[in-house]
Task: inverse folding
């Protein structure tokens, strides 16, 4: 049942059909754990905050002898700014799907040497054919997830089913949202009846009245750990990453409710990629192969409960994890999920400018 759920979920967010682009990887039984290569030096990992378990880093270090230096960021834009600022110290980055697409276009990523990542066969086949990197030539999925709404039912008595339900005057000062301009603008575009990727100067301009109504109601912008503000009672409603919502549901699924917005929502795929001229490419490939072991991948989901692309790892998860609706959305809620496509730098700048201007009013 779960395998069909996962397959359907992914097919609805743009899986490609070009069989010729599929790499020579055969999904099947997981690779048996073996001692990894003895390497040396260090691995500079630049990844999302609250997304990489300490146990995974320590296990890789002990097995390979490589020292991992983990630097975190809170948004794709923050990560890109570091790369575009000339930093070439990173061996692995963890961009979302539309950023992978952009970096591939720029020639900014090293190709993945598939023969050095045999554990790719543990991935669900659908992840081999995603349109942002057909055939996984430059990236390997880490985790997937959605952007949804979590709220405290002890305080919020009316059901919340969409973005328009969140941004009401009665909830002023009790809302936390992601600190991400593209996300915020896409929500308003969706409420205006457009697709999430339909970001043009005209559609963004049309969102200004909505944003002028919405943003003064927001108490906090937080892409790192918005669940903390919800837990403390500082806010009662959040538009957050699904792993944040899943964590709250795991703690108390009677107090917290989760909804995927009826207007449509983003399904993201965060992947590992190796920047061009990585100082430690061999260690980077070894790390990618290591995290694809089912028993290692399970550790990631246990600590950060997102949608796991590793089919063999999913089989090892307890039923409670597989049935958490924030981690693994039910079929009826998946119809409006969309992956983001690459935006031009001009359109991204326009989205940033729009949100910044409205925040400052």
Result:
């Amino acid at each position: 049942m779960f395998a069909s759920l996962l397959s359907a979920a992914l097919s609805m967010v743009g899986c490609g059909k070009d069989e010729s682009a599929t790499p020579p990887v055969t999904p099947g039984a997981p690779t048996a754990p073996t001692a990894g290569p003895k390497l040396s030096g260090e691995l500079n990992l630049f990844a999302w905050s609250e997304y990489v378990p300490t146990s995974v880093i320590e296990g890789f270090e002990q097995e390979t002898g490589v020292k991992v230096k983990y630097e975190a960021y809170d948004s794709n834009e923050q990560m890109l700014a570091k790369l575009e600022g000339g930093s070439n110290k990173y061996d692995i980055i963890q961009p979302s799907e539309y950023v992978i697409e952009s970096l591939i276009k720029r020639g900014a990523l090293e190709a993945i040497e598939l023969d050095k990542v045999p554990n790719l066969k543990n991935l669900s086949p659908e992840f081999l054919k995603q349109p942002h990197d057909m055939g996984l030539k430059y990236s390997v999925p880490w985790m997937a997830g959605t952007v949804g709404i979590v709220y405290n039912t002890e305080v919020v008595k009316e059901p919340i089913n969409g973005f328009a339900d969140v941004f009401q005057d009665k909830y002023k000062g009790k809302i936390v949202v992601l600190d991400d301009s593209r996300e915020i603008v896409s929500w308003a575009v969706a409420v205006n009846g457009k697709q999430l990727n339909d970001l043009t100067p005209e559609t963004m301009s049309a969102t200004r009245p909505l944003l002028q109504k919405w943003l003064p109601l927001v108490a906090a912008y937080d892409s790192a750990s918005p669940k903390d503000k919800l837990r403390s009672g500082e806010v009662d409603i959040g538009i957050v990453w699904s792993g944040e919502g899943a964590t709250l549901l795991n703690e108390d699924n009677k107090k917290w409710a989760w909804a995927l917005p009826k207007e449509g929502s983003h399904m993201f795929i965060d992947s590992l990629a190796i920047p061009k001229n990585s100082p430690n490419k061999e260690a980077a490939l070894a790390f990618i192969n290591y995290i694809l072991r089912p028993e290692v991948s399970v550790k990631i989901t246990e600590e950060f409960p997102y949608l796991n692309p590793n089919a063999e790892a999913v089989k090892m998860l307890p039923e409670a994890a597989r049935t958490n609706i924030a981690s693994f959305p039910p079929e009826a809620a998946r119809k409006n999920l969309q992956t983001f496509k690459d935006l031009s730098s001009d359109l991204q700048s326009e989205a940033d400018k729009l949100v910044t201007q409205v925040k400052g009013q």
User: Anything to note?
Assistant: Confidence is low (pLDDT under 50) at residues 1-35. The longest strand covers residues 140-152. The CA atoms of residues 183 and 266 lie 8 Å apart. The domain at 145-266+338-359 is CATH 3.40.190.10 (D-Maltodextrin-Binding Protein; domain 2).
